[in-house]
Amino acid sequence: MRQVDFYLLHTHYRQEKERFTCQLTNKAWHQGYRIYIHTDTRDSAQRLDRMLWIFNKESFLPHDIYPDESSSAPIQIGYTEAICEGMDVLINLTENVPPFFEAFERMAEIVDDTEPARQAGRTRYRLYKEKGFMLKVHNINR
Fold it and tell me: What is the spatial distance between Cα 99 and Cα 82, in angstroms, rounded to a whole number?
C-alpha cells in the first residue's frame, strides 16, 4: 500500500524546512532509497542543492538538479512537472500535489507552520486519503 508521511514543522526558523528536508533525505538515502525532491522553482532547487552540500560535514549525499544535470545520482532535486524515472521516494516541498505522485510508493509532505501552508497540506491530505493511501502525521517541534 502506498504511504504518505506528513511532517508538520512547528518552528520559528525560516530555513527549517530545507534543513529538515536534508535530514530526511540523509536518512532515506542511508536506508537505500532513491529520492526525488520536488520544489516549486529552479531557485528553490538550487538553494536546496547548496544546503545538501553543506548541511552535514560528515555526510555526502550524491545529488543533482533534474532535468538540468544528466546523471544517475540517487538523489534528484526537480522543479518541473517532468517525472524523474527510477526514484523510490518523493519528498514534496510544494503546496500542490505533483502530477506524477502516483509513480511513487512512498511520499513525504513537509508542511510549514503557517496558515496557508497548513491549508494546502490539508487539501493534499484529503486527496491522498481519497486515493486510498496510508497516511501518517508526524509533529516536528524545533
Answer: 9
